Amino acid sequence: MNIKPDWLRVKAPQWQKVGAVKEILRDLQLNTVCEEASCPNIGECFQARTATFLIMGPACTRACPYCDIDFEKKPQPLDPSEPLRLAEAVVRMNLQHVVITSVNRDDLPDGGASQFVRCIEVVREMSPNTTIEVLIPDLLGDWSALNTILQAAPEVLNHNSETVPRLYRRVRPQGDYQRSLELLKRTKDISPWLYSKSGIMVGLGETIEEVKMVLEDLRKVDCDIVTIGQYLQPTAKHLKVEEFITPGQFDYWRSYGESLGFLQVVSAPLTRSSYHAEQVKHLMQKYPRNKPHQATELM
Prior knowledge:
Number of helices: 11
Structural class: alpha/beta
Radius of gyration: 18 Å
Number of strands: 8
Strand content: 5-15%
Distance between the termini: 48 Å
Order of helices and strands: HEHHEHEHEHEHHEHEHEH
CATH class: Alpha Beta
Strand order of the largest sheet: 1-2-3-4-5-6-7-8
Shape: globular
Number of domains: 1
CATH superfamily: Aldolase class I
CATH architecture: Alpha-Beta Barrel
Helix content: 25-40%
Largest sheet: 8 strands, mixed
């Protein structure tokens, strides 16, 4: 059994503050990736009154062997009240930046794009000063569904690469590395003003050079922000950790990514794709972009 090194140990949260967020989520019957995916930062984020909302779930149509989200339950029909409940949580939590992600819904004709749009629209109506980040699945390469989401003009579009190409068959068997790159490329072709983002896990057997290659590939499709974090095994039935990466190695990847021209590289053992996502507001101030009223459609 792998024993976590000291740099992966997290402080116990103040549960009184964590409970306040949990109470809002339960009251509004909302799911979060923080809870469903057993994120190690849940205490810190809930204590800071932030969360990453998981829509259209919690059941997923894919069975990725690294992920703790349930794939054995049957996905339910979309709930038309979910966008309103999510927006109410944004208001109650006074979120200045919200991250909305989803399970994979390959059973839906548009992969759930329309539900993302409804969530964006209602949040924008109820909390107009809140910036919106969507962390989306690959939509099975349905580029019209991608365009549907982009027409709603979120400030940030995030799609995780997850791992290096060599490990895709083992780590992300229903995904496709080139498809993920194409999604990010089309995002910037359609909405060049938008901040695009991607993330990978390490410690699954990849090499240093392979991680560098993924960073290079992401820059080639004009990805702005990248996150790199340590993979942690949720349960004994999931993929095992091959290696605990040292903080020094994460520092190296951050420096390398910055040398490639990313606007931001968040690279540390406990980094997750939406960890401290609200810091993107500082990035927007430092590197402002004019946002049009509507994205340009490009099929």
